[in-house]
Amino acid sequence: MVMGNVLTISGQKGGSGKSVTALNLAVSLALYKKKILLVDCDPQGSVTQWSGINAVGYPFDLSSVLSGKATIIEAIVNTQFNCLDILPAGFNLFPVASKLGRTVANEKILRLFLEDIEADYDYIIIDAPSSYGFLSVAALTAADWLIIAMCPRYNGFEDFRCLLQLIKYIRDTHETTLKIANILFNRCRSNMQINQFLADQSLSETRDLVAHTFIPEDETVKRAIEKKMPLALYDVKSPASSAYLSFAKEMVLVFKQN
Known about the structure:
The chain is of the alpha/beta class. It has a single domain, classed as 3-Layer(aba) Sandwich (Rossmann fold). Helices cover 43% and strands 13% of the residues. The protein contains twelve helices and seven strands. Strands 3-4-2-5-1-6-7 form a seven-stranded mixed sheet, sandwiched between helices. Helix 8 (157-174) links the parallel strand 6 (145-150) and strand 7. The longest helix is centred in the middle third of the chain and has 18 residues, at 157-174. It is globular, with a radius of gyration of 17 Å.
């Protein structure tokens, strides 16, 4: 594997489409025959639930790894997609993170664990919590790249400014080269809406970071979540599923160029 293909999906407010993006980008890349590990770093466990693995159960999860009760290899679970594995999570991650969060050095713990299996995957995708707590910092510290999930209804200048400050903290504290890969807009109607949003929020200077693809408003997303499955399994021909497949292609090109 070419080093530097660990990416974290972050959105600093609920409703940004962060977890939906993490799951469906991972699935889309797997459909293109890329070997993917999806890491659920959120105690809400959304991507774990939506991936469908809850139906078969699993003995270990990310909290087991971070607390030393299992190796990372033991905690990784296969999914219905040949090229996609997942490191699941649930609310038991919260007390483990609370304990680890007492020491700044522990913010690198996820990165250290992932180094052991990074060579086994083309891309490792981490779903970070929508917060500024220990798990968010650990998820960003583990990454080489950041994809920022945004929604015109919820995100704005202050959210973006705070995220930039968090990136600077991680770069300075842990000497990482974390870079923004792009900004992905979810639940959009058009590029015109994106441009208007950026102008209204004094974010026009970030236009070059915005992905060419945007994820359209699509009721199929909600229905797939209710069924606890990725869009590609629920309706691969839906507008949002097609958009995620396009975004996956775009991301592959981004990494080839860097």
